[in-house]
């Protein structure tokens, strides 16, 4: 039986901004595993935008998983529907190939959440048909998916912040440099205090 996972994310950007930024998610600092993205088809039907894209991602597996899955990359099909009138963006993704080892089907729905925010409700079904190992592979798949979600949100937020900077907010790169500088100063202070205490 497939394992089910779900979570909810709030983006501090309007639905229009998220819908625009969705197509520019890659590359971002958290997406080094995404090798390519290609638009397969796109059409407008009944006022909605229907898109199919093919993504290629690296596929690092733990040592124990190499006996089942040796491919260095995996193809992902992504289908999306954008309804600008109702302000709903729904995406569906699934892996192509090696689905008996592990299949991952994901659905994400983006809707306005008020106050210039967007809520993303994510659902995923992870399954495996490897006899004797399916339960362990499903558990591994859920844990990896959970970690990937965190990276995806962080990367998407970076993209959105770059596209739609807040008035008066420092650029993301500068903010990161400021944080690193503050952390280095704090370490230096702690080291100095430690030296004083030892003496």
Q: Would you kindly provide a brief summary of this structure?
A:
This protein has helices at 15-21, 134-163, 172-198, and strands at 3-11, 34-45, 48-58, 73-83, 88-96, 103-114, 117-127.
SSE layout:
Blueprint: E1 3-11, H1 15-21, E2 34-45, E3 48-58, E4 73-83, E5 88-96, E6 103-114, E7 117-127, H2 134-163, H3 172-198
Antiparallel strand pairs: 1-7, 2-3, 3-4, 4-5, 5-6, 6-7
Explain how this protein is built:
The protein has 199 residues and is an alpha+beta fold. Helices cover 32% and strands 38% of the residues. It has three helices and seven strands. A seven-stranded antiparallel sheet has the order 1-7-6-5-4-3-2. Strand 4 and strand 5 form a beta hairpin. The chain is globular, with a radius of gyration of 21 Å. The mean pLDDT is 86.
Q: What is the average of the pLDDT values?
A: 86
Beta-strand content: 35-45%
Give the oligomeric state of the chains in this entry, treating copies of one chain as homo and distinct chains as hetero: single chain
Q: Measured on Cα atoms, how large is the radius of gyration?
A: 21 Å
Instruction: Output the strand order for the largest sheet.
Output: 1-7-6-5-4-3-2
Succession of helices and strands: EHEEEEEEHH
Number of helices: 3
Derived from helix and strand composition plus strand pairing, the structural class reads alpha+beta
The stretches of 5 or more residues where confidence is low (pLDDT under 50) are none
- Measure the end-to-end span: 63 Å
The outline comes out as: globular
- Helix % is 25-40%
Main sheet characteristics: 7 strands, antiparallel
DSSP strand count: 7
């Amino acid at each position: 039986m497939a394992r089910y996972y779900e979570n909810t994310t709030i983006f501090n950007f309007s639905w229009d901004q998220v819908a625009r930024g969705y197509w520019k998610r890659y590359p971002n600092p958290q997406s080094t595993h995404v090798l390519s993205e290609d638009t397969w088809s796109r059409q407008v039907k009944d006022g909605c935008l229907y898109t199919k894209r093919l993504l290629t991602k690296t596929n690092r597996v733990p040592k124990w998983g190499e006996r089942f899955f040796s491919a260095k990359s995996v193809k992902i099909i992504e289908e999306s529907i954008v309804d600008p009138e109702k302000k709903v963006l729904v995406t569906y993704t699934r892996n192509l190939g090696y689905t008996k080892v592990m299949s991952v089907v994901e659905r994400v729905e983006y809707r306005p959440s008020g106050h210039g925010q967007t809520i993303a409700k994510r659902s995923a079904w992870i399954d495996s048909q490897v006899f004797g190992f399916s339960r362990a592979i499903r558990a591994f798949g859920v844990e990896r998916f959970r970690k990937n979600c965190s990276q995806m949100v962080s990367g998407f937020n970076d993209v959105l912040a770059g596209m739609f900077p807040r008035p008066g907010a420092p650029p993301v790169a500068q903010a990161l440099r400021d944080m690193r500088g503050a952390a280095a100063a704090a370490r230096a202070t702690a080291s100095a205090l430690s030296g004083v205490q030892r003496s």
